Amino acid sequence: MSETMAETEVKSENTEQPRELVRGVLSPKFTAGPHGLGDPDDKSLRKLEKQVLIPQKIRQKTRTEKCVDEVRAFTECGKEAGLLVWLDCRDANKKLWDCAEKWFYDKDFVAQCTEEYLNERSEYRRTGVGVKYMKRKHSAMF
After folding, report:
1. Principal place where this protein is found (predicted)?
2. What is the pLDDT of residues 13-37, one digit of tens each?
């Protein structure tokens, strides 16, 4: 077997029959589950999730929940300054970056965002419905 192929034994309902060996490219933990989207109870993180998706979630939550006043101040300054935003809004930009950096390196906040991400991923793997679709459906109800 090559190193890139994953082997999985498929259990037969009849114990007298031999087990079928299924070969595939992806590990069973990425293709298991009710919809073939991965094991909903798997809490391990891939490199992409650790380095891209969770930091993206941290930035988004920081912008919308933690540093709202700093974002608003920088936005207003940018509207007033126009093309000279890089020159006129240095103070507001510095305050915004300081606030974002504070939350980005806060271990409790990072753990909270990671747990939220894992819960969203588990729900997606369990139902097959993504978070964006669920939010859109929920907002249409009201």
Report:
1. mitochondrion
2. 555 666 666 666 766 766 676 666 7
Asked if residue 125 and residue 66 are part of one domain, the reply reads: yes
**Residue 73 vs residues 57, 95, 97, 103: alpha-carbon distances, Å:** 22, 9, 12, 18
One domain for residues 24 and 57: no
112 three-state secondary structure: helix
This prediction's pTM = 0.69
My answer on whether 50 and 86 are in the same domain is yes
